[in-house]
Amino acid sequence: MPPQTPLTSLLLVEDNAAHALLLAAALEELAVAYQLEVIVNGFHAAARLQLPPLPDIVLMDMHLPRMNGVEVIQALGGRLMEVNVVLWSAAHNPLAAVEAAAVGVDPYLEKPSTSRRSLEVLGRVLTLQRLPLGFRVAAWERHQGQG
């Protein structure tokens, strides 16, 4: 019997139901073994990410109710250093990518608006190579020095 593919745990932090449905449909179409957890605001995401087990991937909206994506990462301190975190937004804002990188998150992606584009974005998210831990630690330390 061939070994089973490990299950990928994906935490989607998204307050827009249409975007969450596009992502779920793309996961189904890609036939990826995954466990999807959806949270609809930044405050609850910060609380969830303080509890084990941490997900393999966090795909988080930049603009969320109660706390935005960067505020969630800031609230967690360095807790997410070992997790692939991707921030995304429907709003085109080049400064958002800079803000995300400042707290050690890369990539920052624009949300897809079609199912085809969702497949492309999700494929990229699932095959990400995590940033080297040293980069993320350095970004976090720089951020801490500004506060």
Explain the overall architecture.
- It holds the Pfam family Response_reg.
- This is CheY chemotaxis protein or a CheY-like REC (Receiver) domain.
- The chain is an alpha/beta fold.
- It has a single domain (8-146), classed as Rossmann fold, CATH 3.40.50.
- Helices cover 43% and strands 18% of the residues.
- It contains six helices and five strands.
- The protein has helices at residues 17-30, 42-48, 69-75, 94-102, 115-126, 133-146; strands spanning 8-13, 34-39, 57-61, 84-89, 108-110.
- A five-stranded parallel β-sheet has the order 2-1-3-4-5.
- Helix 1 links the parallel strand 1 (8-13) and strand 2.
- Helix 2 (42-48) runs parallel beside helix 3.
- The model is unreliable at 129-136 (pLDDT under 50).
